[in-house]
Specification:
22% of the residues lie in helices and 41% in strands. It is of the alpha+beta class and 165 residues long. A five-stranded mixed sheet has the order 2-3-4-5-6. Strand 3 and strand 4 form a beta hairpin. The longest helix is centred in the C-terminal third of the chain and has 12 residues. The protein is elongated and about 80 Å long. It binds zinc ion (ZN) (2 copies). It comes from Seleniivibrio woodruffii. InterPro entries: YceD. This is DUF177 domain-containing protein.
Length: 165
């Protein structure tokens, strides 16, 4: 979704939509987003709210697991061609709230995508009590126990020998 910075600077604008993207091995759906562009003295202020869901394998048992979220964000949009502003703002380059716009083009989906990606969890587990996979046979321990479980851990067998002596 490409928008014109100059046009929005005159009257602002309101946009809504939905789209999907993938982030690493996560399938992310932006269920809906709402964006308001508000002209300010220093450029454009973007007020967005979005709800999203994501689907990824559980970090422990690899079962497909879903999550969802809802966030709002406020971002100051600055045009990159304004060299003087750019130099001044280089000091605050790590400010998460500023987004540099190249030329006259605002890619609204890309801005929303970055905001959603920022809020995605690094790893997801299907539940706090997920037992994961057996490190030996790969059996999903949530669905039952595997045979390896009854065997004694080889790391302790030496200890047992000492004890039995
Ligand atoms: Zn799991
Ligand atoms: Zn096993």
């Amino acid at each position: 979704m490409k928008l014109s910075f100059e046009e929005l600077l005159e009257e602002g604008g309101h946009f809504e939509g939905d789209f999907a993207f993938t982030e690493d091995d996560m399938k992310v759906t932006v269920e809906s987003f709402s964006a308001d562009f508000i002209p300010t003295d220093s450029g454009l202020f973007l007020d967005i709210s979005f709800s999203y869901s994501y689907e990824t394998p559980c970090a422990r048992c690899l079962e497909l697991t879903k999550g969802f979220g809802r966030q709002t964000a406020g971002i100051q949009l600055m045009q990159q061609s304004l060299e003087d502003v750019k130099e001044e703002a280089e000091l605050t380059d790590d400010d998460m709230g500023v987004c540099w716009i190249e030329e006259d083009e605002i890619d609204l989906h890309e801005i929303v995508r970055q905001e959603v990606a920022f809020h995605l969890p690094l790893r997801l587990v299907c539940g706090d009590d997920c037992k994961g996979l057996c490190p030996k046979c790969g059996e999903n321990l949530n669905t039952g126990s595997c045979k390896c479980k009854e065997e004694t851990d080889p790391r302790w067998s030496g200890l047992d020998k000492l004890k039995n002596n």
